[in-house]
Amino acid sequence: xxxxxxxxxxxISTGDMKGQLExxxxxxxxxxxxxxxxxxxxxxxxxxxxxxxxxxxxxxxAPTTGAIEPVFxxxxxxxxxxxxxxxxxxxxxxxxxxLDDLLAVRDRIRDRGVNVFGPLNHGMCHSIYFAGPENLALxxxxxxxxxxxxxxxDPEVVGLLGIDADELDAMKEPAAFVSKxxxxxxxxxxxAKPHLKMPRYAALMGMPDEEVTARLSQSDPPVAVPV
Length: 227
Known about the structure:
By secondary structure, the protein is of the alpha/beta class. Helix content is 24%, strand content 22%. The protein contains 7 helices and 8 strands, in the order E-H-E-E-E-E-H-E-E-E-H-H-H-H-H. The longest helix has 13 residues, at 99-111.
């Protein structure tokens, strides 16, 4: 317990929700599963397309998003080989199970008139590369076996990053953690730690967990489904 086991959803800002949904549903075959007013955010749309039943790509469209100018090397990389600002999405790679699946997806992408290149054999995976709407840098990859850290952690890169032997061991085998059933208290706000940029953040962090859940949760779907 206490370990994330996958990506539930990756949220991408968009100024064209319809265009993104059309691309992901038609070109990539992902099913639209949710489209509603984003909880707790005024005048903002939230859309989800399915990768599988526990993994989704989400889109967020706020009224001002379309007016924000993309800047390559800052907000966007433009390709999987170019930089973008720290903390931004440089590119995203979706998984398929086999090389045959990868070629099938490539066929679908090309059939929709979208250019794609690969597969490239990276040893740990085979990958194809293409662009999505609004300058998304996209990849689809498949790995025949799990990545073997003995072969893929380069000592030269480890040294250049200043990672010592103890730190490397801790990264390869993170310390075990025993859950206390949700009883660990919220720590004091430490400016040295990462923090969300949102209004009334300090008040939110000082609020009891039960109150946060009761006050901020919105669990009812926008459409009533007949039983």
